[in-house]
Structure formats: C-alpha cells, structure tokens
Amino acid sequence: MSASTELPAGFEALEPFVPAWAVPGAAERAERRVSSCEADRLAFYEAAKDLLAPALSRLDEKPLDQFDEKETRLMHLMLAFAHVAFAVEVQGDREAAHAQSARRMRITRAPADL
Amino acid sequence: MNVPASSFQPFEEDVAGLGKAPIPTGPYYREDYFELEREAIFKRVWLNIGHVCEIPEPGDFMVRELEVARASILITRGKDGTIRAFHNVCTHRGTQLTQETAGKRSSFTCRYHGWTFNADGELRSAPDFERFYVDKSDCALKRVSVDVCAGLIFINLDPAPSQTLGEFLGPLVERLEALPVAKATTFSEYVYEIDANWKVTFDNFEEVYHLRFIHPRTSGPASSPENPFGYPLRFNFYGPHRGHTFWKAPNPSFTPLQLVAMGKMGQNVAAEGFAQAPNNNEYFGLFPNLFILGQPAQHFFHSVMPISATRSRGVIRLYWIGADDSASKRFAREYAMVGARDVHAEDVEIIEAGQRGLSSGALEHVHFQSQEVLCRHLFHTVDSMVQAYKASLDAGGEAR
Q1: What is the average pLDDT across B29-58?
Q2: Is it true that domain B47-162 has CATH number 2.102.10.10?
Q3: What is the per-residue burial (b if ≥16 Cβ within 10 Å, else e) of B32-64?
Q4: Does the first or last residue of chain B, that is N or C, have fewer Cβ atoms within 10 Å of its Cβ?
C-alpha cells in the first residue's frame, strides 16, 4: 500500500473517507451524518471500526495543540466516526427517519470546537 | 411454593401523597393558564440561565433572552470578579442595551443616544446629561437578583425574592455541589425548539415508561426482563423539586465500539474522582424547568424554556471538567454528546404529537400512573402556585 499523503502512517485505509468526513466542527459532522447515504456510512464504519482504538492511541502521544495537518485530519475523522457509529450501530434502518428529528437538535457548542 | 427473588420492586403506592386523580388538560395548552404561570412562577422563582464557566474573567458578559418573562438579561463579571445581572435595558428610554449575546467589555453603550454603563451597572456617561432632570446615580441599570450554586448561575426576576437561592434549593444545595458541574470549565450544548407546552415537554423526561416505545434501541440497556420498563428504584421529593434514582439493568449489552468509548470516558471520570460519586445514579428535577443527570459520563442538564403556551426551547448541556487535553478525551466527549442528542431527537416528534392532541381540546383529563408520579408532582407544584397567585389577585393583590 502506498504511503498516505493525508493521514499519519498506518491509517492509509481511511484515506478515501477524508474528503467527506474529516471536517472541523461538531455541528458540521452531525450534518454530514444526516445528509449522507447508508452505503457511504457503512463503508466508513467498516473501514474505521477497528482503527478507532489504534488512532486514538497514536493521537494520544501528542498534545492536541501540537497536531500536524495529518494528525488533525485523523482526529476529525475519528470524531465524525462517533456520529456515524451511532447511525450504523444504534439507529440502523431507522436512521433516515431519525435524521429528520436530529436536524432539529442544533449543536451550538462542543469542546472540540474551542 | 418458592417465590423467585427479584431485585426490583416498583412503587405501587401513592409515594408523594398527591392522590391518584386524573389531571386537567387545560394547564397544558390554554393561553390564560400560561399567562398565570408567567407571573406566578417564571417571574418569581430562581431560574438557571448559565454557568460561571461562560464568564470566567472580569469583563466577560453574556445575554439571555427569557421570552416567558419578555425579558432580556445581561449577566456580567465585574472588575471585582463579582457576577451581576441586569435587565438589558437602557434606563434612558428603555431601549435594549446590547445586541451581542456574549463577549468581553468594560462598558455598554446604548446605540440610541450614547448612554454608557459600567459592567457593575452604574451610568458612567451620557451625552448632554445636564439637560436631564435626574441624577446619574438614579440611572443605573435595573438589577436582577443573581446567585450561584454548583457553578450554575440562577436569576430571580422578582424585585424582592421571597426566598434566597439556598432556601429555594433546600437539601439539593449539598447534592448539587457534589456533582461534576460544580467543577466544570466547559460544556457541549445543543438546542431545539418544539411546538409544545413547557410542561408537556418536561414531563416526557420525568418518566421512563416511554423508553421501550420511543427509544427501543438507544435506551435498550435501561431495561431487563425483571424490570421491562426500566422503572426507577425510588422517587425523591424536595419541596418543589423532585427526582428519582435510576435502576441499573444487571447485564446490559454494548457493542465493541461502545465499550471503547465508555472505557475512554470511564478513565476521564475516574481521573476526576467521580467513579463512585454518591449522585451517579440520580435524576434531579429542579423546579420549574431544569433536569439533571448526575452520572458523570453523560452529565447533562436540560432546561425547557417556555416561549408561548404551546412552544418551548430545550437547551441541553453536558458539562465537562477541564479542556480537552487528549484525543481520547475529545473523542469520548463527542461520543457522549452524540448519544444524548440521539435520544433527545427521538423525543421531539412524540412530544409534539402529544401537544396536538391536548390542544385539540378532545380530552378534559389525562392520567398519570404511579411511575409517572414526577409528572403529577410538577403539575401539583405549578398549579398550587398558580392558584395562590390567582387568590392574591382576587384578594386585591397587585399584579407585577
């Protein structure tokens, strides 16, 4: 596998998901979840579920304010995964209906955005 | 015959001494009743409107709009570190003073004629003031009573509150001060508006009877065959306030990912010293419109602010101690917020459906069962204050 240009080494498998999911802002991550299609959520979930723990271990090696661009992307990707995991693991086939109500719950602040 | 032992026995008796009668529906949609609540309750009791971590430094300020009182409240932290609250109203001709919602300022200038007030409310300067017929010392911003418990900022719009905040909260002061919120420095927040009366909205969160129907997936771990509705272990009453103690299912199942996230959060909670804290299984309903989950892993505060008789705003905050200082902590906090938000999103539509039915006037009464006693308690508390207020009006008391 060729080296990732977008993410730290070892997380190349997640590179295809960077454009759609590695976004700053908890509200934007929530919006990506509810505006995504099931196939895209499942693909991201399957690729990321076994990489969450290694990604957090890798990122925990450094203070948050010293992340380089690749590490920042990986952080954002894992935060988006928190949203997608609920859609896939918990809501399942109710996600489309759930999304309508979820849109009404506007995220106005998150520590990750400060 | 051997009777199988069960660790759960639901309350069957009238635990609060509130009777078993049906509850009238009018208070849940009628405009005239809402007008009485506005005066009898929301302009007289202590209301949580924020947290000290929002204005940590001298000069910090925030503004809260309280539609129920038709009031805009300016909360400042002065140079002396003291938190003060004022009506956000210029004392010249009543213009709303600042349009900002939060920030840092040593003074506030009215855009209409340039009257400028210090953060302690005093009128500092006013152009051509010599032509007025009043002293500057009589033109300070109108003060609003403010006090803090467990880091939570409360205001009271009554010009002469009948109780201090401590008297109002009573035995809950000590309980609240023991919660993580008392040490919080930041929070996650999400907000919704809903076409429902504030009590209809609040009642949804005061009973667990609905969990298996509205939250079959998000709240699955809250029940088991011996307690299929996940009813509380006990109900608790503290004057106008109330609560319950959560029953914990013996063997809840979680996905591998949930276990990773819960493990990360568990590390945070343990490091903060709240792993075995006394209020971890407690639900507190603070009169009139705030409820709190004591559990530190999902320590959320949900206030339901009335906008009209049939419209409200929910503000949910998860309070955290310390800034994110690691990727794991950041992930665990976002995951906890998404989980709480998923549950609350599931409630919105059913609450509105309930309101539509009530507002139709089809029913004269609704029914609360023994496990919905907190809803009954809220109604009785509200109605006793409304009736007392009406009686004072009838006796010639002055409406404020």
Answers
A1: 98
A2: yes
A3: ebbebbbbbbbbbbbbbbbbbbbbeeeebbbbb
A4: N
